[in-house]
Design goal:
This protein has 300 residues and is an all-alpha fold. It is built from 16 helices and 2 strands. The chain has helices spanning 4-27, 34-44, 50-57, 61-71, 85-92, 94-110, 122-140, 148-157, 160-168, 170-183, 187-195, 199-209, 214-222, 235-250, 266-272, 278-299, and strands at residues 115-117, 120-121. The chain has a two-stranded antiparallel sheet with strand order 1-2. Helix 13 crosses helix 14 (235-250). The longest helix is centred in the first third of the chain and has 24 residues, at 4-27.
Length: 300
C-alpha cells in the first residue's frame, strides 16, 4: 500500500498536467488581431490623435461599421449622429473606442457558438457581461480616483473565461453548467468541481495570450478572490466590478451561468462605505442605462 505522501504527490502531478493542458489549449487559440493590438496601443498613448486611430481602424471594415453603430447607439446619447470613425472617436473618446474594439474582436472569435447547451445562451451571457460593464462604469463614477471607462471595459470582460471554456473544454463546461443547476451552486464552484479550476483561471490565461493591460488581467484573474488576497494596486477597481456583478445578478439582467442570488459582501461594504439601501437605489439608477445597453448586446 503506497504511503499517503506518495499518493498526494501523484494527485498533485496529475492536477499539474491537467492545468498545463488547459493552458496549452488556451494558447492555441488565435492571437490578438493585429488591428486590435494597434488600436489598443494607440488609445493608451497620450500622443495619439483621432486621425491616427481612424487610419488603423479603417483597415477593418467590420470594426469600422461596428464602432460607428455603437457610437450612434442610445447608450452613448449623442445629440447628433456620427458618420465616420474619426467623429466617433472625438465624440465618445479613446477609452470607449478601445472597449468597443476589444468587445467586437472577442465576440468575433466566439460568434460561431451562439448556443452550446440547454443551460446556456451566449447572447444571455453577453447581456450579463454588458450589464456588469454598465454598472461598473456608473458605480466607478462615484469612487474617487477610478477611471470609469476602464471599469466599463473590465466589467464587460471580467467573465471572459467562460467564453474561453466554451471554446477549449466545451464538454466539461456543459457539465459544470449542469452541476451548477442541479446542485444550486455558483458556476465557479461547479467549475472547480468538474475542472479543478474556475473561469477566472481561463480568463487570466486568455488575457495574457491577448496581451491585455496589467490592470485588466488582474481584474479578470482576481474578481472572485477575497479582497484581502487581491493586490492593492487594483483592489478598488476589482471591488467596483464585484459590486457591479452583485447588483446585475440581483436584478437578473442576462445569465451568468448559474441561478444563485448574490449578496454584497461585508468587505465590499466596508471598502466603499456603502450604506443600507444602496442596492435598491442603485438598481433604480441603472434601469434606464440598462435599457439602452440592450442595444449594445445586439450590436456586439
Amino acid at each position: 500500500m503506497p504511503a499517503s505522501g506518495s499518493l498526494d504527490q501523484r494527485v498533485d502531478e496529475s492536477k499539474g498536467r491537467q492545468i498545463e493542458g488547459y493552458i496549452r489549449k488556451v494558447m492555441d487559440l488565435p492571437t490578438i488581431p493585429s488591428v486590435l493590438f494597434k488600436v489598443w496601443r494607440l488609445c493608451e498613448s497620450a500622443d495619439s490623435t483621432p486621425s491616427e486611430i481612424e487610419e488603423v481602424i479603417s483597415l477593418d471594415q467590420a470594426l469600422t461599421s461596428k464602432i460607428i453603430r455603437v457610437a450612434n447607439s442610445a447608450f452613448y446619447k449623442r445629440s447628433s449622429r456620427v458618420s465616420n470613425v474619426k467623429s466617433a472617436i472625438v465624440n465618445i473618446g479613446f477609452e470607449a473606442v478601445k472597449t468597443i474594439a476589444i468587445a467586437a474582436s472577442v465576440t468575433t472569435l466566439f460568434r460561431k457558438r451562439k448556443r452550446i447547451s440547454k443551460y446556456f445562451s451566449l447572447k444571455d451571457f453577453w447581456k450579463h457581461s454588458i450589464g456588469v460593464g454598465v454598472a461598473s462604469k456608473i458605480f466607478a463614477e462615484k469612487v474617487e480616483g477610478v477611471n470609469p471607462e476602464n471599469c466599463f471595459c473590465a466589467g464587460i470582460l471580467h467573465d471572459i473565461g467562460k467564453f474561453v471554456e466554451n471554446l477549449v473544454v466545451p464538454e466539461d463546461f456543459v457539465k459544470a453548467l449542469s452541476v451548477s443547476t442541479r446542485k444550486g451552486v455558483t458556476i465557479s464552484e461547479a467549475e472547480v468541481e468538474v475542472l479543478g479550476v474556475d473561469h477566472a483561471f481561463f480568463g487570466e490565461i486568455f488575457a495574457e495570450h491577448w496581451n491585455f493591460s496589467d490592470e485588466l488581467k488582474r481584474i479578470i484573474a482576481d474578481h472572485h478572490k477575497n479582497l484581502d488576497e487581491i493586490d492593492e494596486l487594483y483592489l478598488v477597481e476589482t471591488g467596483v466590478v464585484r459590486v457591479a456583478d452583485t447588483v446585475i445578478r440581483d436584478i437578473q439582467f442576462g445569465f451568468p451561468g448559474d441561478f444563485k442570488k448574490a449578496e454584497l459582501e461585508e468587505s465590499l461594504i466596508e471598502l466603499f462605505s456603502i450604506e443600507e439601501g444602496f442596492i435598491s437605489s442603485f438598481r433604480e439608477e441603472l434601469r434606464d442605462e440598462l435599457e439602452s445597453a440592450v442595444e449594445l448586446v445586439n450590436l456586439f
